[in-house]
Amino acid sequence: MSGPPGVIIAGAAETDQLGRLPGYSTLQLHVEGALNAVADAGLSLRDIDGIATVSAPGPVQVAHALGITPSWIDGTGVGGTSFLLHVRHAAAAIRAGYARTVLITHGESGRSRVGASPFRLGASSPVGQFEVPYGVFGPTTTFTIPVLRYMKEYGLTHEQLAYVAVAQRRWAAKNPRAAFRDPVTVEDVLASRIVAYPFHLLECCLVTDGGGALVVTSADRAASFPKPAVHVLGTGESSETPMISQMADFTESLAFRLAGAAAFAEAGIGVADVDHLMIYDAFAHVPIYGLEALGFVAKGEAGPFIADGNTEPGGSLPLNTNGGGLSYTHTGMYGMFAITEGVRQLRGEAAAQAGSPQISVILGNGGMFATAGVLVLGRHPR
Amino acid sequence: MAAKPVPVPTPETQPFWDGCAAGELRIQRCAGCGRAYFYPRPVCPACGSRDVGWFTASGRATLYSYVINHRPAPGWEDETPYAIAVVQLEEGPRMMTSIVGLPATPEALELDMPLRVRFESRGDVTLPVFGPAAP
């Protein structure tokens, strides 16, 4: 076998429940996700020697709560895609011999805010000086700003934007764990209240409580776990800007494109090889930007591509098959849930199983087009 | 009602805020590659040169993109919905801003429409905002 030794996801799980969980602290969501993922891998906490998560509570707190004394720590915290970067960094650490079995955890009391850190944007930070004074109020007022430019330059219609939510609800309808499962129409989406024009409520993600975790280890152990191993075939990461106003081109994500190119190159695949796709969908336009950045369609074609039914059940490119952040769950840092769904699809155990995919691609977003991570996952080694 | 957020200048941004207080939109330009840039920082983001200086921009801009926010940030309750815009300065850089003197409606706010800077005081600083090009 050529190339560096392989790395697998041996365990992947979410918290028992998602949604509104006022009885769980942020830390407890990490703990439950971790215990479920370690059990999914058929391991015990004593087998874990590497830990990765975001602050807060951070890897030291999570490791200590679980009784883990790590030999490798990653606290990369660059928004909702951080867990994809953790997988990438863990793969490098495992290949380097720094760790053998890495636990990556996510937990967020995004809705109930139990044991959660307060949102803080320093008034002297660049964002605090040059964006916050203009009345921005969270992602609904910032992540959304580029889309009118995209609509003008590429002719994306309000109906096509709304259809992203319609398509994903069709997947969610098949998923008993999805928060929203009732079918919706374009008319329903456009009739929901305006949050920040041109975005309506149903074009914005949920805000939930929940967690999840992954166990990552070397591929030479692939046969020693109870579930089929999911091979990490390629990974990529990048960043563009911490301020949406400074995004180089409002019609495309540089970070998405660079992270995707790196992951596809490492995996040695092209878009035609991809059977299943997850694109972080904090808002309805993000899958449009993601499809184009990864090269599945040309610039300006993603809106019609989705509206023509290509990404919904029965379509050629199953996308966001758990229902996504728009219908499944969105704790604030959704990336973990995009990974766990990719793992389920490759194992053939998803609620809305999309055939027998061999290759699943996960695109994670952090901040407002600020950072990106991409994973190419496979049922088989390269 | 909470007060609107007031930016706190840092040493590298102080000349920008001093300019606003004087009614001038002062931004930076690289002496090496000639490119104007914003937000203030001591190195050119295009070429890495530290040979950068301040100049007064024309204040002319076009509307690059925006949202009309219906869920007020603290301090904005009485003027919701309101536009949060990104404008492109004549010199090239873009900045986030508020739109004044125009209704916060899609009909009134056409992308690429010409705009001109105004200044508004907020606490002990002065903010650049943009309104119609013709006074």
List the helices and strands and how they pair.
The complex is a heterodimer of chains A (382) and B (135).
Chain A: E1 7-14, H1 26-40, E2 50-52, H2 58-66, E3 72-74, H3 82-96, E4 101-109, H4 126-130, H5 147-154, H6 158-172, H7 186-191, E5 194-197, E6 199-200, E7 209-218, E8 230-239, H8 254-267, E9 276-279, H9 285-293, H10 302-307, H11 324-327, H12 335-347, E10 359-366, E11 371-378
Parallel strand pairs in A: 2-3, 2-4, 9-10
Antiparallel strand pairs in A: 1-7, 1-8, 4-7, 5-6, 8-11, 10-11
Helix pairs in contact in A: 1-2, 8-9
Chain B: H1 14-21, E1 26-30, E2 36-37, E3 52-56, E4 60-69, E5 82-89, E6 94-98, E7 114-122, E8 125-132
Antiparallel strand pairs in B: 1-2, 1-3, 4-5, 4-7, 5-6, 7-8
Structural account:
The complex is a heterodimer of chains A (382) and B (135). The mean pLDDT of chain A is 97. In chain A, strand 10 and strand 11 form a beta hairpin. Chain A has twelve helices and eleven strands. Chain A has two domains: 135 residues, Thiolase/Chalcone synthase (Peroxisomal Thiolase, Chain A, domain 1, 3-Layer(aba) Sandwich), CATH 3.40.47.10; 214 residues, 3-Layer(aba) Sandwich (Peroxisomal Thiolase, Chain A, domain 1), CATH 3.40.47. The relative contact order of chain A is 0.19. Chain B has one domain. In chain B, the strands form two sheets. Chain B has a five-stranded antiparallel beta sheet, with helices on one face. In chain B, strand 7 and strand 8 form a beta hairpin. Chain B is globular and about 45 Å long. The relative contact order of chain B is 0.21. Classes of the chains: A alpha/beta (382), B mainly beta (135). At the A-B interface, helix 4, helix 5 and strand 5 of A face strand 4, strand 5 and strand 6 of B.
